[in-house]
Amino acid sequence: MTASTVQVYPVIWNEDRVLLIDQNRLPTEYVLVEISRYEDMAVAIRTMIVRGAPAIGVAAAYGLYLGARDVQTQERDEFFAQLESIAQQLRQTRPTAVNLFWAISRMMRTAYESLGTVDEIKEILLNTAKRINAEDLQTCQAIGTHGLEALPQTPEKLTILTHCNAGALATAGYGTSLSVVRTAWHSGRLKRVYADETRPRLQGAKLTAWECVQEGIPVTLITDSMAAHCMKLGLIDAVIVGADRIASNGDTANKIGTYSLAIAAKAHNLPFFVAAPLSTVDFKLSDGSQIPIEERDPAEIYKIGETVICAAGTEFYNPAFDVTPAELITAILTEYGAVKPQELKDFQAKQIS
Ligand code: MRU
């Protein structure tokens, strides 16, 4: 990492509580929200104060510890009964990003494996949450390094289109797709980022553009519907997006609008990359049709600010994610290197052997 890299950490452990950057208030206000109770962490995840698949995982891990800390019993079975209930409430916050479930499972497994006292298990839970946080940061940096190697060799300086926010704010720091962007920028291989605004919650406009501006990376904001037009004009060299859950055949769930971007990239013969840690692959799922897709409050689409933008009587459908079929994905950029989506299973076996 070069000295000019700006560090953004959306989830910070601070003595005895968690500080979250309130992502609903960026870019106009930079506010840290203090979280000391697991119930408040659940609300923060649901209301998207913290969002982005890996960041949700880190936040939920700390949330589980905060809940464990307040359990009063010293009796092991009773402690685990209460811990299971806390874990369940955290699992119910958002359904699509597998990182949430992965982080909670890892925390629970570590707790069950400990033969120590309840107080010792609580300490183990805090240390595991800190480890998940630190590992995600390293993973993101490795995604950037490997991702850079997978980018097209020409032109020398690339213009990369991205969707939603898969940046530092969506992870422990540094990002997945924006990690590749950052690494390319610091290696002299990036000309500019095009950021899709990302209807309806505008993560591209509010968060990705903010991150790029913080770091001095040239960024052009477009609306989602302008992406194919920009490709046709030759303004884009590659597309890189993040992922919320990848099925074992490589089908990838990411922010709504990703699928149409992949189709447009294919039509214009542009590489379409997904940048994600291997923990985002849900090997239990054979294909993308099994990925649960979150539907959010229709107010996200029928209002802009406080203004209702459609006639009374209109009906709504507001899926937060879509699934891009594996055949539209050039490669998945992981912390271990780039892999073709169809080769994920063998690739994972090689990493753990
Ligand atoms: O609804 P959000 O803002 O949590 O959705 C975020 C995304 O879709 C990201 O692209 C994804 O989580 C990857 S983050 C590294």
TrEMBL record:
Site residues by UniProt (Transition state stabilizer): 164
Pathway(s): Amino-acid biosynthesis; L-methionine biosynthesis via salvage pathway; L-methionine from S-methyl-5-thio-alpha-D-ribose 1-phosphate: step 1/6
Protein keywords: Amino-acid biosynthesis, Isomerase, Methionine biosynthesis
Binding site for substrate: 51-53, 94, 203, 254-255
GO BP of this protein: L-methionine salvage from methylthioadenosine
GO molecular function, one term: S-methyl-5-thioribose-1-phosphate isomerase activity
EC number from the UniProt entry: 5.3.1.23
Active-site positions on this chain: 244 (proton donor)
InterPro entries found in the cross-reference section: IF-2B-related (IPR000649), IF-M1Pi (IPR005251), IF_2B-like_C (IPR042529), Initiation_fac_2B_a/b/d (IPR011559), M1Pi_N (IPR027363), NagB/RpiA_transferase-like (IPR037171)
Keyword Protein biosynthesis: no
Catalytic reactions on record: 5-(methylsulfanyl)-alpha-D-ribose 1-phosphate = 5-(methylsulfanyl)-D-ribulose 1-phosphate
EC primary class: isomerase
Classification via NCBIfam families: eIF-2B_rel, PRK05720.1, salvage_mtnA
Function: Catalyzes the interconversion of methylthioribose-1-phosphate (MTR-1-P) into methylthioribulose-1-phosphate (MTRu-1-P).
Family: Belongs to the EIF-2B alpha/beta/delta subunits family. MtnA subfamily.
Name of this chain's protein: Methylthioribose-1-phosphate isomerase
Organism: Desertifilum tharense IPPAS B-1220
Gene: mtnA
